[in-house]
Amino acid sequence: MAKFRLDETDHQILDILIDNTRTPFTDIAKKLNISAGTVHVRVKKMEEAGIIIGSSLTLDYKKLGYAFIAYVGVFLQKTSQTKFVLERINQIPFVTVAHVTTGKFNIFCKVRAKNTEHAKQIIFLLDDIEGVYRTETMISLEESLNDKKRLMHSIFKEL
Amino acid sequence: MAKFRLDETDHQILDILIDNTRTPFTDIAKKLNISAGTVHVRVKKMEEAGIIIGSSLTLDYKKLGYAFIAYVGVFLQKTSQTKFVLERINQIPFVTVAHVTTGKFNIFCKVRAKNTEHAKQIIFLLDDIEGVYRTETMISLEESLNDKKRLMHSIFKEL
DNA sequence: GGTGAAAGCACCGAGTT
DNA sequence: AACTCGGTGCTTTCACC
């Protein structure tokens, strides 16, 4: 897991692409006063180094009818295998991310659902997994995403 | 927040772009046996409708030296303003997302940090916010992301 | 590691069915 | 709505710095 050396130019390229992956390389080149070929080569290198894993669309799940977010803490039975339960959890598509955690819960996951009723069904699925002792749900009343760019700037300051 | 009508073709387009936003429209057109112009028009419509909010890079934060993830539950003092505290929390760049929640905690957030020491500093920042009574931290030992595509498929089955 | 030019493609709007 | 088509502009490579 060696750290990869990124210079100021790489940061600026990532900065632009993180906001819009379809920004033409020619535009980036103009802004940074380098050639489009250079942008191309640098992006390719960052992809090869695994810094850039991929690109994805940001969709409005509310508009798709999926406005409900909940976090679910999972308590396991003493004898149960965390890995096994984690695999089962990841088979539920409405669970977007799951973490094995220290602290109160054994596993902790985020659920994206249509509404309360739908969420209930998903949580029942979680409860029914073999080895799960019980769950504890926190419903999100308001989500507030922080700008990815802000995190990047902070990271770059220190690299 | 009206639901937008997406047909099968729209789903397939999103399916491809969610994996790689730079997939040429001509490639998508070939796969779906439609013209590239149609792909273009449909993507544009989904952008205008606000279904597609934007596009972003997926970076390997571990490779950037930020392997530490924790979830922090925040308890507020009875008199404190949730909105005010939420704003303060969002000023910390290493907090990637914050939720107002029902249940145990008042606010619940995700922290991305370099290591334990760094996380400690961030959590101290949270603790120091006016109106915060105390916090409770859960450290992620293992993160397991679910495929975005899987969620989309499930959503599309029901639209 | 960067450039600039050139060839190959993709984008995207206009006009058509 | 979707198609075709053409102008414009983007990507990507390569010889040269």
From TrEMBL, chains A, B:
Keywords attached to this Swiss-Prot or TrEMBL record, sorted alphabetically, are:
DNA-binding, Transcription, Transcription regulation
Reading the lineage from the top rank, the first entry is Bacteria
Keyword Transcription regulation on this protein?
yes
Keyword presence, Transcription regulation: yes
- Which parts of the sequence belong to the HTH asnC-type domain? 6-67
What SUPFAM superfamilies does the record point to? Dimeric alpha+beta barrel (SSF54909), Winged helix' DNA-binding domain (SSF46785)
Q: What is this protein called?
A: Lrp/AsnC family transcriptional regulator for asnA, asnC and gidA
Organism per entry: Mesonia maritima
